[in-house]
Design a protein that fits this description.
The chain is of the alpha+beta class. It has four helices and six strands; from the N terminus they run αβαββαβαββ.
Length: 124
């Protein structure tokens, strides 16, 4: 979502630091961007994380690589209008989201939905 909001403003997505799964997903949507995995998820509340000094060093090196390749970087956008759905773990979270936030509608027990003209309307 952040890359798409930046893309609407003409700002290219050049770097992503996340866990291994987040980097893999970023690579699918932003194949030109440099990614650095800082941990490997092993369960809902468990991960093997790199030492903070090592992760910081890899992030700094990754950002340098991305900046060196600025000419290859592109913007990422979602063409509008969009139908955005958010699925929650608990029914109460979904109810709270549509009851308290204008424009959201229920789309099942755990899911809320909202139409956006542009992704920059998120979270609206």
């Amino acid at each position: 979502i952040d890359a798409a909001v930046a893309g609407e403003l003409g700002v290219p997505a050049i770097f992503v630091a996340s866990d291994e799964a987040g980097c893999a997903e970023a690579s699918r949507f932003l194949p030109w961007a440099v990614t650095v995995a800082t941990k490997r998820g092993e369960g809902w509340n468990r991960a093997f994380s790199k030492h903070p000094a090592r992760a910081a060093g890899e992030i700094a090196a990754g950002v340098r690589r991305a900046v060196e390749r600025l000419g290859e970087m592109r913007t990422f956008t979602f063409p509008g209008p969009l139908l955005l759905e958010v699925r929650f773990k608990r029914v109460a979270q979904a109810v709270n989201a549509w009851a308290r936030h204008r424009g959201w509608r229920p789309a099942g027990l755990y899911t809320v939905r909202r139409r956006l003209e542009r992704i920059s309307e998120w979270p609206g």
